[in-house]
Design brief:
Layout: E1 2-6, H1 9-17, E2 24-26, E3 29-32, E4 35-39, E5 45-47, H2 50-53, E6 74-76, H3 81-93, E7 96-100, H4 105-117, E8 124-126, H5 134-141, E9 145-146, H6 151-181, H7 194-209, E10 215-216, E11 219-225, E12 228-234, H8 251-260, E13 265-278, H9 286-297, H10 301-314, H11 333-344, H12 348-355, H13 391-405, E14 412-423, E15 426-437, E16 461-469, E17 472-473, H14 482-490, H15 499-505, H16 517-526, E18 530-533, E19 536-539, H17 541-549, H18 552-555, H19 558-571, H20 577-592, H21 597-606, H22 622-629, H23 648-653
Helix pairs in contact: 4-6, 6-19, 6-20, 9-10, 9-13, 9-14, 10-13, 10-16, 11-12, 15-19, 17-21
Length: about 650
């Protein structure tokens, strides 16, 4: 019997539908002739709690840190025991096993850890599916690979899981216990990704709160040139009172120059004119889609992820969504017209876009060298029944189709002009743009560009028709939103001060992964570290206090972004998991030595930030909390001996402290 283990039931059903044999359902599996398809329910296993290694670590004690397992153990998740028992029974009967996890790092870990936990020693093949429609699944079933090829990917995922456990368990216990010494009765969870993300928001909020606006004074002139009129802006010289962006901060020089300008003649001293071609935006990765969907439709990152999962699993309209890639396989180019035609046939807007597409074109999006375990999000070609989609599902589906459709539109061609005029020995600048060929641009709502300038000739004369000095005021940075925070997590190097580290991070995946970024934001909200104010994400007083008390290495993005870089290197066999863990433990011991109750007490007493949303009451008494502790559910440990009055909900929050 061949046993196929899928990551989730929806994938198992899609595989069974593509197999011969009819598909006979039984508990936890589908039998298709000599092949049985079973499934996980997400992660069936989790890292064992500290007390599984040493019962003394059920109590939270500073003198027991760091907790470092000798031999790592996994434990069944409480709700997954029955399905794990099904797989255990089936795997004993199997002559071969097929790993059918999602085509990414976590998908590799999720199924392979079950196979290894159940001590299966026979041959294992890998099934990679990114499209749940039957023809695509059939093609994947005909192209099985050896699971051994993906061992480095598994090692990277396993290293990530263990490192998150070490980091989250130890630092959460250290700062929670230090917090108790400082008078805070509650869990202070710390994680290698969630805490730097919180740090980004706290620092942004601090800069907004501490911002001191000041005025600046742009000076403009309206000029008559040979073939029309235009407006140009003064570029003050360096000796003028300027801020770091070259803006004039004292009105006196502007007023003095403005008084001399009316009627003045000058010349066009510098002229740059060039035609530019801009290729269409690439198809979406998940994070890029989350950014655009937040800006265009006001959807949170988690909402976009949930919508994509439904479009993939339930409606089967898009390919695998948790992708960090923005390129498509070259073999898909030949199928693109058919898949886009199918996707568009029931939607007037999409059909209009389809009518303008030229399928003889080939953009840079079709590139096998840029495609890894998965490719960019794309429509499967199944016709969308819009009546079966919610409004937000339809919005997201159209975005995904649009970005693939744009690959069959001509480049945007513009004519851009930059001009410098000299008047009274001062420089005035103007710029403009005209569209020569809109190409793909009509498919997108884009910001307005500079209007076109009249035709200009180097050295031609000009005359001032009017002038004015405006008074403007500097504005604080904008608070983070889901869109800007996801973008910041994608491009984390911009928020790193060390130039060498910034260069190193330029080509990495950023902070978190496609699959985890949305969940990290929601976790921070649920734990009371962030609140949503309309579209803005703001840090609470508790969130601000925690960041103020933690070592900067914990709350800054450098360390965790470099983690991601090393994990990618492990997946590419360019780094060693043991060396990675050894380096982590050295850093961890140094961080634990910096827990400081006095510093934390001061930050808790003086923190600024927003009031947290009211916590949902668990409705459990202290007695029920004590009884719940003894069930052996996943936890970072018991706090019975610490005198804590934390709620059961607070206890449960520690379960994901390793995020």
């Amino acid at each position: 019997m061949r046993l196929i283990i899928a990551e989730k039931p929806s994938l198992a059903r899609a595989i069974a539908d593509a197999l011969p044999g009819g598909g006979k359902r039984q508990e936890g599996a589908i039998v298709c002739g000599d092949t049985t398809v079973t499934w996980c329910l997400g992660h069936l296993l989790e890292q064992a709690p500290p007390e599984a290694y040493d019962p003394a670590d059920k109590q939270w004690r500073l003198d027991r840190l760091p907790i470092v397992p000798g031999t790592w153990q996994l434990a069944p998740r409480p709700k997954a025991r029955s399905q794990l028992a099904v797989i255990r029974k089936l795997i004993k009967q199997a002559t071969s096993v097929v790993h059918a996890g999602d085509p990414d790092r976590e998908g590799q870990l999720l199924v392979q850890e079950v196979i290894e936990h159940l001590k299966y020693r026979g041959p294992v093949q890998r099934l990679l599916i990114s499209d749940l429609n039957r023809p695509a699944v059939s093609r994947a079933l005909a192209s099985l690979r050896s699971n051994a090829e993906f061992q480095p990917l598994f090692q990277a995922a396993q290293a990530r899981s263990r490192a998150d456990w070490l980091y989250g368990i130890n630092l959460t216990r250290a700062w929670t216990l230090t917090g108790r010494q400082a008078g805070h009765d509650g869990v202070l969870s710390v994680g290698r990704v969630q805490t730097p993300v919180l740090g980004l928001i706290v620092r942004r909020d601090n800069s907004i709160r501490d911002f001191k606006p000041y005025p600046f004074y742009p000076l403009w002139v309206d000029l008559q040139v040979a073939q029309g009129q235009l407006r140009a802006w003064w570029a003050p010289k360096a000796h003028q009172p300027l801020d770091d962006q070259g803006r004039l901060t004292d009105r006196t020089p502007a007023d003095a120059l403005a008084a001399q300008l009316p009627g003045t003649h000058g010349t066009l001293s510098s002229l740059e004119q060039q035609e530019k071609r801009q290729a269409p935006p690439l198809p979406y990765s998940l994070s890029a889609l989350q950014v655009d969907a937040a800006r265009r439709h006001g959807l949170s990152a988690q909402m976009v992820l949930d919508i994509c999962q439904r479009l993939y699993e339930q409606h089967k309209l898009i390919t695998y969504p948790r992708s960090d890639c923005r390129y498509l396989p070259e073999e898909h180019l030949a199928l693109a017209q058919r898949s886009l035609s199918g996707a568009c046939q029931n939607d007037d807007m999409l059909r209009g876009w389809l009518d303008g597409a030229d399928f003889t074109l080939r953009s840079k999006a079709w590139n096998d060298k840029q495609v890894g375990a998965h490719h960019a999000l794309a429509p499967t070609g199944k016709p969308a029944d819009v009546s079966q989609l919610s409004a937000t599902e339809a919005h997201v589906f159209r975005l995904i189709v649009r970005n693939v459709m744009a690959q069959f539109y001509r480049p945007l061609r513009t004519f851009e002009v930059k001009a410098e005029f000299t008047l009274l020995n001062e420089v005035f600048r103007a710029r403009g743009q005209s569209i020569l060929d809109p190409g793909w641009k009509p498919l997108f709502t884009t910001r307005e560009e500079a209007p076109p300038l009249p035709p200009l000739t180097q050295g031609e004369a000009c005359q001032v028709l009017g002038t004015g000095v405006e008074e403007k005021e500097t504005r604080p940075p904008e608070p983070f939103t889901d869109a800007s925070l996801i973008k910041a997590m994608m491009n984390i190097g911009r928020y790193v001060e060390d130039p060498e580290v910034r260069r190193t991070l330029r080509d990495t995946d950023g902070l978190g992964t496609e699959a985890t970024r949305a969940g990290i934001i929601e976790t921070l909200v649920q734990r009371g570290y962030l609140v949503r104010q309309q579209k803005a994400l703001r840090a609470t007083k508790l969130g601000c206090a925690l960041i103020a008390a933690l070592p900067s290495a914990v709350s800054s993005p450098e360390s965790t972004a470099l983690w991601e870089q090393r994990l990618r290197a492990i997946s590419e066999q360019q780094d060693d998991p043991n060396a990675f863990q050894h380096a982590l433990l050295e850093d961890l011991r140094a961080l634990l030595g910096q827990s400081d109750a006095a510093k934390l007490r001061h930050s808790l007493q003086n923190a600024q930030g927003e009031a947290a949303s009211p916590a949902k009451r668990s409705g459990t008494s202290k007695k029920s909390y004590t009884r719940r502790k003894s069930t052996g559910n996943k936890s970072t440990g018991s706090k019975k001996t610490t005198g804590s009055r934390s709620s059961a909900a607070g206890k449960r929050r520690t379960k994901k402290a390793t995020v």
